Amino acid sequence: MRFMVLSVLVIGCGDAAKDDDDDDEAWGEDDPDAGGWGTDGGGSGGESTGGGTDAGGDTAGSDGDETGADDTGGHDTGGEDAGGDGRITIFPTTGVEFGPFEAGHTKVGGFRIDSVGESSLRIISMSIIDAGENAGAAVFSGLRPHIEDHVVPFDISPGENAEFLLQATMEEMGTATGMIEIYTNDPTVDDPSPGHVRIPLSAVAVETSDSDSDDTGS
User: Fold this and answer.
1) CA–CA separation, 8 vs 12, rounded Å?
2) Is 180 strand, coil or helix?
3) Which of 32, 59, 64, 171 is deepest in the core (most CB within 10 A)?
4) How is residue 213 annotated by DSSP?
5) Which residues contact 26 (CB under 8 A, 6 or more apart)?
6) pLDDT single digits (tens) 124-146
């Protein structure tokens, strides 16, 4: 009696492909100053650049760390967390400064987000978390993308950037401070928790310059 043993080896293989987003945006093509870049827009403190839903329950590298009610976008981020290879830098590095400008006016400024890592940087949410105060009203408002395609949430390819605008309104002379918070897939930033980075805002309003017309001579 003879026995025969048959062995079968099955080998599987698969391919994967990745799309490369080649958006090419330029920072400050009009070379504006801190206040003359873009157009004015309305809004109030605590606003965001997108719709009114949370960022899909994403976490910044730890359980239960959601982005909160001020999150932007209105789209689900697909369950991504802050454990990717995205890397973020912000320009100006010291924050967004408005003025000095005359009280009773509005000044427009902006900032740029650079993707400096080897993988795409995911901007999950962005909002003004401190709008400041002057004469009983919010100072910082109108947070919005410079390019319509950059609606949060979105990705910035390595080596590319995205620009955002906002404005400051001061009815009375004085100073005001505020804050923007951005949630990303960059695990190296931690302000105030992994994946988050904050941008300080400041505004200075001075007296209107119409006093020269009071000199009538004698």
Assistant:
1) 13
2) strand
3) 59
4) G
5) none
6) 999 999 999 999 999 999 999 99
Q: What is the CATH number of the domain that holds 146?
A: 2.60.40.10
Give every strand in the sheet of 174-184, ordered side by side: 96-102, 196-206, 174-184, 121-130, 154-156
Strands 174-184 and 196-206: antiparallel
Each residue's pLDDT tens digit, 59-71 = 333 343 433 333 4
More confident residue, 175 or 209: 175
Confidence class for position 110, pLDDT limits 50, 70, 90: very high
Supply the range of the domain harboring residue 85: 39-209
Residue 143 lies in a domain: yes
pTM: 0.62
* Contacts with 184 (C-beta within 8 Å, 6 or more apart), sequence order: 82, 86, 88, 121, 122, 123, 124, 195, 196, 197
Tally the residues of the chain.
218
Which percentage of the chain shows pLDDT scores above 70?
57
pLDDT averaged over every residue in the chain? 71
Sign, CA torsion 92/95/98/99: negative
Residue 85 lies in a domain: yes
Of 25 and 216, which is predicted with more confidence? 216
CA distances from 65 to 136, 163, 177 (A): 32, 26, 26
